Amino acid sequence: MSIQVSGLVHPFIHASCLFPMDVLVQSGNALAICGANGTGKTTFLRLLLNELQPKKGIVKTNENFTYLGVRNGLKPQLKVRQQLLYFMSNQREFPWPEFLDKTYKDLSKGQQRLIALWLALHNSALLVFLDEPFAHLDNYNCSLAHTWMAEQLYLKKSIIFTHHNPEELKNIQPLQVLDLNII
Hints:
By secondary structure, the protein is an alpha/beta fold.
């Protein structure tokens, strides 16, 4: 087990709805928390991260984790090379050597998000939380991000992320979808 949720209720989520009694994300699986703006996707993620306390219910996890929020969390004044040294405990080949000597703030929003997402997925944590991971990415880079996620799932990481449309996630398997639009 990577994370288990039982009977979770919180007043900020979709009229205090009761989540499914058993959400279990095993190693090597992904959970997409989907829904329109305001349905509680980020709130649900914050409950899983223990940033918020539920009104009722239990969240159990047994893994170290990494988290990428809607803000990328990287230092705007540092060069990409410095970010890699700071955030990566293991050395991996970075896919964009042309960005290494650029200052992070000088990259486009899409480039910034892609680098932050790559860092979140390619670190040593076995459980990865991502809030709107595909924000600012074009179709090509969304596809690339889906490929990275599939690779990490194959390596037995668990990925929990928010997204608006579950229909856009068919390339990520194995995937459970918690659709807050229909709860």
